[in-house]
Amino acid sequence: MNAIINLYAGLGALLDQAGSYIGLLSVRLLLAWEFWESGVEKFRGDNWFADIQGDFPFPFNWVPVDISWFLSTWFELAGAIALVIGLGTRFFSVSLIILTFVAWTSVHAGNGYNVCDNGYKLALIYLVMFVPLLLNGAGKLSLDHWLARRFLKS
After folding, report:
1. Domain coordinates of the chain in residue numbers?
2. Which of 19, 58, 103, 139 has the highest CB neighbour count under 10 A?
3. pLDDT confidence of 126, banded at 50, 70, 90?
4. How many CA atoms lie within 13 A of 58 on its CB side?
5. Rounded to an integer, what distance in angstroms lies between the CA atom of residue 116 and that of residue 59?
6. Dihedral, CA atoms, 85, 88, 90, 91, nearest 10 degrees?
7. Which segments of 45-64 does DSSP mark as H helices, in order?
8. Peptide bond into 57 cis (omega under 30)
């Protein structure tokens, strides 16, 4: 019985070690892919924010649609790159959380939960995925971690 317990504990320690490198990286890469795709679509497409600006929550409904379009496009693109390399992860997590919240309230909330109906399920999943990045940072495989070790030695 002790052998099984020791094997389980050893496996747990190995997974903990791998998780500190790979766990948050996988979340960052998936979110980066999704926001990159959205940013590229906006970059190549026409501004459709004028059609839904009235549905934006305050104070975003006061921002001119061209500025909103520009900011959302470039925060999605820059945020995706930053998430891949793990630089400014908490800043871009907050930025993309705000962007996702605006999208949820203005585009997805009235359509129910189901993704097939353009509902809010994916927006909710993205928001939940940002929580560990916001609370824990980018993880060990990141420029944030390297910079902290290099310049913030205690």
Report:
1. 23-151
2. 139
3. very high
4. 0
5. 29
6. -130
7. none
8. no
Whether the pTM exceeds 0.70: the reply is yes
Dihedral of CA 32/62/128/91: which sign? positive
Using the predicted structure, report yes or no on whether residue 88 has a pLDDT greater than 80: yes
Query: In whole angstroms, what is the distance from residue 70 CA to residue 102 CA?
Result: 15
- Cβ–Cβ < 8 Å for 74, 39: yes
The tokens describing 6, both together, are 């020791």
Q: How far is CA 114 from CA 33, 85, 136, 145, in A?
A: 21, 32, 30, 37
Output the CA–CA distances (angstroms, integers) from residue 32 to 21, 37, 52, in the order listed: 17, 8, 25
Q: How far does Cα 76 stand from its chain's mean position?
A: 9
Please state at what angle helix 89-103 crosses helix 2-44, rounded to 10 degrees: 60
What one-character DSSP code corresponds to residue 57? Answer: P
